[in-house]
Design a protein that fits this description.
Blueprint (H helix, E strand, L loop, with lengths): L9 H14 L12 H10 L5 H14 L3 H5 L3 H7 L6 H19 L7 H4 L7 H12 L9 H9 L8 H11 L7 H12 L27
Helix pairs in contact: 2-8, 5-6, 9-11
């Protein structure tokens, strides 16, 4: 799949990234985890759910089921009760238990650092796999595209696409590979603090002078 044609170039994008790094030197994955397995489970739970909510749930879940072998033998109803405050909790409970079972059966309970193997696990798509590969193994397999990354990459003129998979391709073409893991965190931090969905604080934004503000009609 080829990148879409936009005004963005690696040179122009480098200035955005440089400023974002300076403003958010502590940008990181805001899901709490203590191992690749825990990050995998937390990321599955994060679908259609905030990181804050997931962290509250996993504080309890990982205390009781810290490893794949623990969750693989868990009772479905008990897991459902723990993660009930997340959206689609019934389906997620089934997925994380079955995912844990497959990790035990196929990979000795370890999370495989491989895209093709990860996306074969229940509840795991390319986005989840990218999160795990990038943050647990420092493998830049792609650029994670969540709602913040999609919104900001469109506003900054980095992409014209809507589908996350296509946005990922576009960003790979203009973001240095060594920044593929970090850039989503930078955009998420900026999206939560300044470039919000409904009320972007454009007048106080440190990117204002270079941002084309695509699809932005509200400045505050």
């Amino acid at each position: 799949m080829k990148p879409s044609v936009t005004s963005a170039t690696p040179t122009k994008t480098a200035e955005y990234i440089s400023r974002l790094k300076k403003e958010y030197p502590d940008a990181h994955c805001e899901l709490n985890y203590g191992s690749p397995f825990q990050l995998l489970i937390a990321t599955i739970l994060s679908a259609q759910c905030t990181d804050i909510r997931v962290n509250k749930v996993t504080d309890v879940l990982f205390l009781k089921y810290p490893e794949a072998q623990d969750l693989a033998s868990a009772q479905l109803t008990e897991v459902e009760q723990i993660i009930k405050s997340t959206n689609f909790y019934r389906n997620k409970a089934k997925n994380i238990i079955e995912c844990s079972r497959l990790l035990i059966e196929q990979y000795q309970g370890k999370v495989p650092p491989d895209m093709d193997k990860l996306i074969e696990l229940p509840g795991v798509g390319r986005k989840t796999a990218n999160v795990v590969l990038g943050n647990a193994f420092n493998i830049p397999a792609g650029v994670v595209v969540d709602t913040h990354v999609r919104r900001l990459s469109q506003r900054l003129g980095w992409t014209k696409k809507i589908e996350p998979e296509k946005i990922d391709i576009d960003l790979q073409g203009i973001v240095p590979k060594e920044d593929w893991v970090l850039v989503p965190h930078l955009l998420i931090f900026h999206g939560r603090r300044i470039c919000k969905a409904r009320t972007p604080a454009c007048n106080s934004c440190f990117l204002f002078d270079i941002c084309p503000r695509k699809k932005v009609s509200v400045h505050s």
